[in-house]
What we know:
Layout: E1 2-6, H1 9-27, E2 35-39, H2 46-57, E3 66-70, E4 72-74, H3 85-92, E5 104-105, H4 114-127, E6 133-136, E7 158-161, H5 164-170, E8 184-187, H6 190-194, E9 199-203, H7 209-217, E10 235-240, H8 249-265, H9 273-276, E11 280-281, E12 287-289, E13 292-294, E14 298-299, H10 301-304, E15 316-317, E16 329-330, E17 337-339
Parallel strand pairs: 1-10, 2-3, 2-6, 3-5, 6-9, 9-10, 12-17
Antiparallel strand pairs: 4-8, 7-8, 11-14, 12-13, 15-16
Helix pairs in contact: 1-2
The protein binds 2-amino-2-deoxy-6-O-phosphono-alpha-D-glucopyranose.
Amino acid sequence: MRLIVREDSTSVAEYVADYITTRIKEFGPSLSRPFVLGLPTGSSPIEVYRVLTAKYKAGEISFEHVITFNMDEYVGIPRDHPQSYHSFMWHYFFSHVNVRPENVHILNGNAEDLESECAQFEAAIKEVGGIDLFLAGIGEDGHIAFNEPGSSLASRTRVKTLAYDTILANSRFFDNDVNQVPKMALTVGVQTILDAREVVTIALGARKAVALQKCIELGVNHMWTLSALQLHRHSMVVADEDATLELQVKTVKYFKSIEKVAREEGFDQALPRHLRQGTRVVTCSETKANGRTMSPVALKPNEVQPYLLRANSPVLSGPISRSTTPEPTLDSMGSRIEIRA
Ligand SMILES: N[C@@H]1[C@@H](O)[C@H](O)[C@@H](COP(=O)(O)O)O[C@@H]1O
């Protein structure tokens, strides 16, 4: 598990939105090969959705060929209830981007047969080839999705009774009245999340600090279900400073040093190795490749095959081709890099 620490919730949201954007662009989704994105609700991802929406409106990212699966949904409140996760997702994200409604999957908490609803959800994930990136939040009791303390770490999508702590925490969305909070939910299981190719978790604020400490510094434990991500090869937590308050200083320092060394060595450690292979990392503020403006991320191999542009290097420009290795020249403006195949 990796830990990325950022100053505040805004920088966390920017990091996570950049990361998701990079992933989707690297993947290059198409109708026949869509990108599959798992999504959470809660207050933590709201800013991420805002930044992703801004990126979409700026033409940086398209969700046309992105299939989404949401983590969970309450049982027994109408789909159009303001606090249903259906309402949440359309309000904060889906209505603002070009995701196709038929590509959106949110569990139906009012299905006649809830067990079959859950089984169909698992089948739908399987049918599209699994989830490429699952975005998650963390509950104050360390839960992921609605996998409450004590959940099986081998669990799959199912009906779950909510823990009192969760009902209490979520009552802030229901006029602070615990009696209005649904007592049950449908949720993906821990194993459903572990099956994703990559998991990115957002942890914000001091109220998540204890949970984060348990999930990162202690062992895998079914009482803090997010800790199961320690078993995942490509999982990353992106936290603000407040969420790290209960971690040991040396833990935070270690994870910060990983990121620093990776940056100095000129590659983005956050990219899983299999996705890093054949990519070249560009860390200037903006790049142009083949006349297209790209965000400061990893370019596809066929776009800048021979180049590794080191982090913190001066911003360079000049013609670059796959077969030759011309000397890049310094951009006197110091703000752009031109890459031409
Ligand atoms: N089921 C959701 C979780 O998926 C979410 O991670 C958690 C944290 O919410 P928040 O981000 O509002 O703290 O809330 C709910 O319990």
